[in-house]
């Protein structure tokens, strides 16, 4: 069984104690991180390695940034950045192969304020993801595309849906783009395991500490290829992280998939 998690860490260096505590407590096999908010040279690779994970990352100073962590070994990078726009300088996509499993880690643009140029960029980026996702599906191998999609797909994915009607994460165009990926064959793994349950991965910070539970949204998703869907055996969210000291505004979402794992070299931590 392979355990895969995705976590918008909201600043990997500022939240490093939270990240390391969580990695040590959970021992996920594959971890995708978003919103690193750091340049490549300042990514905390050694601290993560000491926690038992090899990593690849695609950083950007102060904004964006994605990384893939593999427990016990180094990821094999396949791609960084989506095809379709050579002028796009945002660090929002990185891809690795792990024991035959393709893992894409993404941080989709938020799109606010919407409508406007930022929302237009979000939709263009989403179109590129949809197109590239079709190529991955045609290849036929086991694949997972996980990360912060900045999309709340359906009303059940928000504690108070009407509260978000003017937000880009809930705009019809955003939801339609996500639905198009599902129509192409991608499986929303968390929703497959919890078809009617209110599951949330994001909450606004509240004044005076803590978080506003009424603002809960599910916009961190793990989409799996059809060949992997029958092997899904668990999914959830590590909600408890939101009560830790200096947490992210997101909590990690995770899935469990039954896959064959080949022997791999051990991570060198010397």
Automatic annotation (TrEMBL):
Cofactor: binding comment: Probably binds two magnesium or manganese ions per subunit.
> What keywords appear on the UniProt entry?
Hydrolase, Magnesium, Manganese, Metal-binding
**Molecular function, one GO term:** metal ion binding
Cite the InterPro entries for this sequence. Answer: AP_endonuc_1, Endo/exonu/phosph_ase_sf, Endo/exonuclease/phosphatase, ExoIII-like
Show the Pfam families listed in the entry. Exo_endo_phos
Q: Which GO terms describe its biological process?
A: DNA repair
Its signal peptide is none
- Marked site: Important for catalytic activity: 220
Instruction: Quote the SUPFAM superfamilies the UniProt record gives.
Output: DNase I-like (SSF56219)
List residues binding Mg(2+).
8, 35, 148, 150, 249-250
Q: Which residues form the Endonuclease/exonuclease/phosphatase domain?
A: 5-250
Q: Which residues are listed under the site Transition state stabilizer?
A: 150
Active site per UniProt: 107, 148 (proton donor/acceptor), 250 (proton acceptor)
Task: Give the site residues for Interaction with DNA substrate.
Answer: 250
Keyword Magnesium listed: yes
Q: Does the keyword Magnesium apply?
A: yes
Q: Which cofactor does it need?
A: Mg(2+); Mn(2+)
Q: Which family does it belong to?
A: Belongs to the DNA repair enzymes AP/ExoA family.
What is the name listed in the Swiss-Prot or TrEMBL entry for this protein? Answer: Exodeoxyribonuclease III
Q: Which organism is it from?
A: Mesorhizobium prunaredense
């Amino acid at each position: 069984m392979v355990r895969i998690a995705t976590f918008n860490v909201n600043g990997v260096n500022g939240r490093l104690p939270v990240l390391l505590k969580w990695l040590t407590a959970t021992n996920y096999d594959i971890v995708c991180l978003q919103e690193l908010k750091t340049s490549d040279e300042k990514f905390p690779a050694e601290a993560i390695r000491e926690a038992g994970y090899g990593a690849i990352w695609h950083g950007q100073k102060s904004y964006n940034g994605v990384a893939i962590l593999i427990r016990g070994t180094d990821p094999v990078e396949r791609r960084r950045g989506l095809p379709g726009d050579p002028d796009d300088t945002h660090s929002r996509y990185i891809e690795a192969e792990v024991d035959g499993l393709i893992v894409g880690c993404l941080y989709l643009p938020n799109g606010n304020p919407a409508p406007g140029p930022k929302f237009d960029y979000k939709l263009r980026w989403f179109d590129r993801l949809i197109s590239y996702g079709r190529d991955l599906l045609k290849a036929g191998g086991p694949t997972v595309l996980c990360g912060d999609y900045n999309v709340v797909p359906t009303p059940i994915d928000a504690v108070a849906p009407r509260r978000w009607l003017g937000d880009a994460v809930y705009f019809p165009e955003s939801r339609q783009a996500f639905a198009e990926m599902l129509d192409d064959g991608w499986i929303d793994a968390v929703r497959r395991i919890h078809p009617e349950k209110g599951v949330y991965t994001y909450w606004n910070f509240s004044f005076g500490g803590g978080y506003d539970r009424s603002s809960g949204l599910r916009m961190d998703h793990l989409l799996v290829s059809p060949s992997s869907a029958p092997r899904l055996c668990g999914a959830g969210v590590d909600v408890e992280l939101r009560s830790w000291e200096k947490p992210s505004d997101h909590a990690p979402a995770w899935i469990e998939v039954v896959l064959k794992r080949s022997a791999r070299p051990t991570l060198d931590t010397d």
